[in-house]
Amino acid sequence: MVCGIVVAALLVVLAVRFRGDAASRLSGVPAPRWRWLAACACCTALFYVANGLSMRAASGLRVELRTVTGVQVAAAATNRIIPAGLGAIAVHLRFLEKRGMTRPAALAAIASIKAAGAVSHLVGIVIVAGTLSGSGIGEAVVSPVRSTLTGIGTGPVLAGCVVVTGTVAHPRVRAMARPAVRAFRTHMSVLAHSPGRTTVLLLSQAGTRLFQILALACTVWAFGASISMMSVATVYPVGSMVAGAAPTAGGVGALEPALAFGLAAAGGDAATMLAVVLVYRVISFWLPVLPGVVALAGLRRSGNL
After folding, report:
1. Which residue, of 5, 55, 98, 109, has the greatest Cβ tally within 10 A?
2. CA distance 86 to 125
3. In angstroms, rounded to a whole number, what is the distance separating the alpha carbons of residues 72 and 304?
4. How many domains are there within the chain?
């Protein structure tokens, strides 16, 4: 609650300070078409269903799709206030432990989902790599992060890298991580001998990326922009990968400019693309918070969390 109050106060200050400038820049933005915004919401819902399929395939548990999808929505709500995806990991870990899995096995299942997501993301970037050359999209997406790092300075960035590397290389940290690494290897061996589960895991994680791209494309088309599906599919994976380096929850403050700059480079009007990204983030990122809180309370009452 304290964090929410502080963030709300900062947003009010920024809104008052830049209200006139924002109004003049957004005055020419067309009104969105609601059917495309509804399609964006449907793609967002399918994103959580696909994540639920991933968890069921990775864990091997026979859980109702409704229940495991509710876990994903609840995890998303906790992820809005805790950075680096730790909120979702905590919810997933507790759910799997409540279902009878040991902590190392549950962590291995969660890690396999992350690994499958990383593979699907890299495959997506490879697929759209040809579109990046000469389009200016890659440079436009990377430019906000590059300017931020330049503003921070090389010294703090290198110091942060040294701290992270030293922490990972510390013998005590390595000793604590060794059982989890063994459990992950065992889990990956099980998945290797279960082609059905592995296929569902990879396809569902690819589906989560596809539904995110479709949701963004629907928002782009809601504002009447004539940007192709391939251009949106190029902007999103590159932008989300760049924004993934941000320590904020859900990449807030990093993903928005990356997507807006990328869509503008793909041929959209800068002000319209900013509105597109803001509306997309409201629908796909902020609106699920309320049903996530409801799902979290329901899962706790039913003993699943």
Report:
1. 109
2. 25
3. 13
4. 1
Count the Cβ atoms, other than its own, within 10 Å of residue 239.
30
- Exposure string for 128-147, b = 16+ CB within 10 A, e = fewer: beebbeebebbebbbbbbee
Q: What is the DSSP string of 243-303?
A: HTTS-SGGGTTTHHHHHHHHHHHTT--HHHHHHHHHHHHIIIIITTHHHHHHHHHHHHHTT
Q: Residue 61 corresponds to which tokens in the numbers above? A: 């548990």
CA distances from 119 to 45, 115, 193, 202, 293 (A): 22, 6, 19, 8, 30
Model-wide pTM > 0.90? no
* 216 found inside a domain: yes
How do residues 52-91 score in pLDDT, each as one tens digit?
999 999 988 888 999 999 999 999 888 877 766 788 889 9
Q: Which residue has the tokens 């200050």?
A: 13
* Domain span holding position 221: 32-301
Would residue 12 count as lying in a domain?
no
For residue 253, tell me if it sits in a domain. Answer: yes
**HSE on the CB side for 89, CA within 13 Å?**
15
Q: Looking at the domain assignment, is residue 103 inside a domain?
A: yes
CA pair distance 285, 94, nearest whole angstrom: 23
Q: Is the alpha carbon torsion for 148, 78, 46, 208 positive or negative?
A: positive
